[in-house]
Amino acid sequence: MSDDPVTRFHLTYANRPVGRLALLTMDNGEDHTKPNTFGEQALASLSAALDELEPADDVRGLLLTGKPFIFAVGADLKAFTGMDADQAREGGRRGHEAFARLQELPFPTVAAINGACIGGGMEIALHCDYRTLSTGAQVLAFSEVFLSILPAWGGTQLAPRVVGGRNAVETIVTNPLNNNQMMKPAEAFQRGFADRYYDSATFLDDSVAFLERLIAGEETVERAVDPTEGLDEALANARGMADGKTKGATRAPYLALELVEFAARGGDLAEGRVREQDALAELLPARQAQASIYAFELTQQRAKKQPWKPDVPPRDIRKVAVIGAGLMGSQIGVLHLQRLEVPLVMKDIDEQVLGHAREHIEGELDKRVAKGRLSDGKARFLKGLVTYTTSYDEVAGADWVAEAVVERMELKQRLFADLEQVVDEGAILATNTSSLSIAEMTADLARPERVVGFHFFTPVPMMPLVEVIRPDGVADEAMATAFEVAKRLRKTAVQCADAPAFIVNRLMLRFNGEATKALRYGTDFKDIDRAIEGLGLPMGPFILFGLVGLEVAYHTGVALATAFPDRFEVDDNFHLMGTSGLPGVYDWSAGGEVYPEIRDNLVVEEHAPWTGEQIQRAALEAVADEARRMLDDGVVADARDIDTAMLLGAGYPFFNGGICRYLDQTGVSHELFGRPLVTAHDGARD
Question: Which one of the listed residues 127, 336, 360, 455 is annotated catalytic?
């Protein structure tokens, strides 16, 4: 029996001047950290409430709302794991049946959207006659396509009728494909998802008054919606986006578009509901949806609990220092400043670099002011917390020191030796190295146990992952502090051992390195990229190398080839790219053609070019081997750590579930090792 909270529909009544009103409140008995969801028991509770309401001839109107801060966030995803087609279709039918009964009540119904409203929450609200929206509702969204399913409790059929086909396409398909973008209340109101928009302080009273005026005939709601206006353009744009984002590797966005178009062009509602059920029966049991549910649990639940964090108090952070004020250091510095709001020291050896750092940090604060996300006074306060210096003296007293200098071992060793002379014994030191050994870096320190790895991904503001590296002998307080800092920075932290290139870079270099070997056989750069993208990945190796920087990729490759010469190789072509001094492989100013300096100097053997299938298979077998070795060697505690890191640090799509889950689902791990990489037991929870 599950201990998860169950959402109940609590029905109460109030006698008002217009007559008896029903108030139906969705509440699972928990605080806002555990939002209302709809499972089998919740739908049964709704049906029981409707059994009471349908024959009640004295009820004049109904107000549906949620618990504080939460309206409802949709179906209980845990129930989706392992569902077959018949179960999925039946789940869709039960939701349709219950929500349709709500829609058919013989008196006015108002959904008072008081808090977060996602997925099934949006759908139940659309089944009411009217909707009010609170300024404090936080977010509203149809997130289903992000999980490789679609709104299947009426969302694809009712949204076009209520807000028009264009808005339905953008919220049901485009937003989920755009990294699950959600609407703020003002946008949702502007798009027509609510009829009235009330301040959160008086929201419930205002919503009840609105219902009373509707009942009394004192207020009407006019909706002039043409479901087909802008529809063709929206459909074309969304299909193009789906092609670009998923490469056709998941059916969900395309089926959702078909259903929205059916409704927008006047399709029968009853038939549309059956079509939704059929679509859910196809999508939910499929590999992509099952992987997405797994990925959602990893990133939104498991990782947030930080199962690796030692059970000791972290150090209180009252002052931060960042050593190295280049672009990466500036991004790290402004992030600490915004999230921790404590004095910040930016230290570099170059006054000009410090000047650029000041411009970057103050510019980022000014942008937030311009967008209304920060008051002018608060921005001035934060700017006043920053010291820019070439001296270590100002670093004294810092509780958390993060270095972000270039990837040279001797430089980092000298830097930490200098830091030990100025910081107190309790200060925690963090290195942003992407591949170097922390043990070697700290070998000559008096207190190496306070140094942790804290590897950001670029661009720092956008990438959600931080790899927290645990060197042998590190103090629990240092690790606890690192995890606490990551949480306060609103980053997802994943722990790994002090091993070459850690998690993401190591796996990506093995994966992409194997694919790039096809160059020596005369395979075209773009054919290799297309083959890798065909696995559903956001980009191929050569586009990725340009994004992270050829020199950075090259140095990481050299480090891995030195550590593991049996598996990693810096061949002539990789050396050519990495030492070219070019910004990437493709010259985008020349239409995306390969730079002649690279193309004309490739080393090519007499060999038939690899096919797309050969490239994919070689890359998958290589990364499978590397993931298995990392698990066997204890680089990570569990395959779920690898998948979380790849999802958040390498942009692996949710519909692949990370690399280990994908290898298990496609049978590669079983073929190579006779066992799955993701097991029932979660090693990080030991």
Answer: 455
Asked if residues 682 and 640 have their Cβ atoms less than 8 Å apart, the reply is yes
Say whether 434 is catalytic. yes
How much is the pLDDT for 446?
95
**505 is known as an active-site residue:** yes
Catalytic site residue from 467, 484, 514, 533: 467
User: How far lies 513's CA from each of 141, 272, 391, 517, in Å?
Assistant: 39, 47, 41, 7
197 phi and psi angles, rounded to 5 deg: -125, 110
d(CA 340, CA 314): 14
Average pLDDT of span 644-660? 94
Distance, CA of 641 to CA of 487 (rounded, Å): 17
pLDDT tier, 69 (very low <50, low <70, confident <90, very high otherwise):
very high
> Three-state DSSP class for 479?
helix
Domain limits, the chain: 8-285, 323-497, 504-634
What is the structure's pLDDT at 317?
97
pLDDT given at position 2: 47
SS3 category, 187? helix
Could you tell me the two tokens for 20? 């008896």
| In the predicted structure, residue 1 carries a pLDDT above the cut 70 | no
Question: H helices then E strands: how many in the chain?
Answer: 28, 19
| pLDDT tens track for 75-107 | 888 889 999 999 999 999 999 999 999 999 999
Residue 547: its pLDDT value, please? 87
Query: DSSP states of 585-622 as a string?
Result: SEEGGGTSEEPHHHHTT----SSPPPPHHHHHHHHHHH
Whole-number average pLDDT of the chain: 95
pLDDT at 585 over 70: yes
Distance of alpha carbon 348 from alpha carbon 367, whole angstroms: 25
Mean pLDDT of 189-202: 97
Confidence of residue 305 (pLDDT cuts 50, 70, 90): very high
Domain 8-285 in CATH: superfamily?
2-enoyl-CoA Hydratase; Chain A, domain 1 (3.90.226.10)
pLDDT in tens, 517-570: 999 999 999 999 999 999 988 889 999 999 888 998 898 899 899 999 999 999
- Residues, the chain, total? 686
The torsion angles phi and psi of 279, rounded to 5 degrees, stand at: -65, -40
In this structure, how many other beta carbons lie within 10 angstroms of the beta carbon of residue 473? 11
What SS3 class is residue 671? helix
Q: What is the CATH number of domain 504-634?
A: 1.10.1040.50
The one-letter code for the residue type at 101 is R
Buried b / exposed e along 283-301 (16+ C-beta atoms within 10 A):
bbbbbbbbbbbbbbbbbee
Which of 330, 432, 505, 656 is labelled catalytic?
505
Quote the pTM value. Answer: 0.92
The question of whether 410 is a catalytic residue gets the answer no
Q: What is the 3-state secondary structure (H, E, C) of 259-319?
A: HHHHHHCCCCHHHHHHHHHHHHHHHCCCHHHHHHHHHHHHHHHHHHHCCCCCCCCCCCCCC
Task: State phi, psi for 625 to the nearest 5 degrees.
Answer: -60, -45
Of residues 434, 435, 437, 669, which has the active-site annotation? 434
pLDDT tens, position by position, 346-382: 999 999 999 999 999 999 999 999 999 999 999 999 9
Tell me, yes or no, if 435 is annotated catalytic.
Answer: no
Asked whether the beta carbons of 619 and 532 are under 8 A apart, the reply is: yes
Tell me how far apart the alpha carbons of residues 344 and 342 are, in angstroms, rounded to a whole number. Answer: 6
DSSP of 404-428: ---S-HHHHHHHHHHHHTTS-TT-E
Name the 3-class secondary structure at 542: helix
Could you confirm whether domain 323-497 is CATH 1.10.10.10?
no
pLDDT at 435: 87
